[in-house]
């Protein structure tokens, strides 16, 4: 079929032509926006899930909903080696501009507070040229959000931004991707600020997205974070939604899938949105005509798998050191041993005991702590419960086994 008309989009964070299976989250967010607009209490939102389930796509869709509601919005991506001050300042700068407050003096004051918050990131005694240029055309405020204590400063910053939004009868929404990568002090400050804002009833919400262990990161920072956020686990698509993600875009281009082709696609992708797009694109390009058949899927599968091996699995595997790769392969082997065992059962996330990984490698668990901790920091594995670990990337174990076969 015509590759120019291929509707599928296997890109990082790229919105698919049919955002299937996420109506529940989108509808719930519409309710949150309206409740906040009416001054009703609401919690900030945290989306969690494995790589490739569409967290970033959903985060962007929620932001679009906030924009349509005429809210001020800003987005940032957390990094483990970067303070929250600069990216959050840029996000709030954009949000305040989008808000369109009628009073220029009020806007200039809040922009000055944002600038002061950002510039506090510079070391003490830094010269003007060494300070980060936030691009804010307003003098930095003094005595507000510039104490140097991130928790105090963030509470003051969001209070002032929330007050500006309240004047307009709308709100401010900050969207944070890879939220698990925030520094510990920043996580604590963000939780404290969200707590203060919710108690004050100001129209500011944070929408975060991150890996499955993000709730544990937040809980370790502030015990009340379990009640502070509305958690939503983003998982693979059920069969009907996975079919819709393939069929609806095809129908818009005058094409279709046979029933056995859809069976084969679900078996290959497991319902993971990123995989659906990768296999859908390959099947479309390989199919000589509509409808796409099971034979077309079989012919296209190696191409899709090669694309995933390089762009989805391989790029992550390359980030690991030789010792860390050995640990990852051992995890994959242990998962197979558990799956084949009659005495033990593999859970939904295919987690494995760290003690079994150590036994597989013939090492003491303590000696493997540096490799395990490094993989945790790189976001390649996560710990859902004490003593167990799992891959953050679906089908990663299968990829590793195929590499060593």
TrEMBL record:
Region (Disordered) residue spans: 1-21
GO MF entries: electron transfer activity; heme binding; metal ion binding
**Do you know which PROSITE patterns this protein is assigned to?**
CYTC
* Domain Cytochrome c span(s) in chain numbering: 166-332
- What UniProt keywords apply to this chain's record, in alphabetical order? Heme, Iron, Metal-binding
Q: Which InterPro entries match?
A: AAA_16, Cyt_c-like_dom, P-loop_NTPase
Give the protein's recorded name: ATPase
